[in-house]
Amino acid sequence: ARGLPPGAAAEGDAAVDSVVQYLDAADFDAVVGGDTPVLVDYYATWCGPCRLMDPTVVELAKQYEGRLQVYKLDCGAHKEKCKELGIRMLPTFQTYRNGELLQEMFGTSTDKLTEIINSAVA
Questions:
Q1: 75-to-50, 87, 92 alpha-carbon distances in Å
Q2: What is the number of H-type helices and E-type strands within the chain?
Q3: What is the mean pLDDT of the segment spanning 60-83?
Q4: Is 47 marked active-site?
Q5: What would you report as the CA-atom Rg of the chain, rounded to the nearest whole angstrom?
């Protein structure tokens, strides 16, 4: 996600790695509505802690590939959607299954992120 101006990510663009995809606000409901658990990483290009978490998110996406879909939603480019979802801190991570929010965490705790992913794929 580094170096991309806000709004540069289009539907289907690869994100920081092929196992992590950018999410467009218009596709949000369809993406989180499936049977496969989904992790959404809410970030902004100007957010240092968000960039700090990028390698961790990619590593976890690879570790859980096939059991978890991982998406990033740029709250700088999609302010209204993030506001609608109540995202107030970055980074925020949420897990979903069948359109239902399972868990949410804020910040840079790899242990907590792993914990909410494990709960989602259980």
A1: 11, 8, 10
A2: 4, 6
A3: 97
A4: yes
A5: 13
Give the predicted TM-score (pTM) of the model. Answer: 0.86
Domain count, the chain: 1
Catalytic residue (choose from 9, 38, 44, 47): 47
Residue type, 1: A
- pLDDT score, position 16: 55
Q: Is 50 a catalytic residue?
A: yes
Q: Is the pLDDT of residue 109 over 90?
A: yes
Average the pLDDT over 95-121 and give the result.
98
The domain that holds 111 is classified in CATH as: 3.40.30.10
Contact indicator for 32, 69 with CB cutoff of 8 Å: no
88 sits in which H/E element: none
CA 51/CA 58 separation, integer angstroms:
11
Catalytic residue among 1, 32, 50, 70: 50
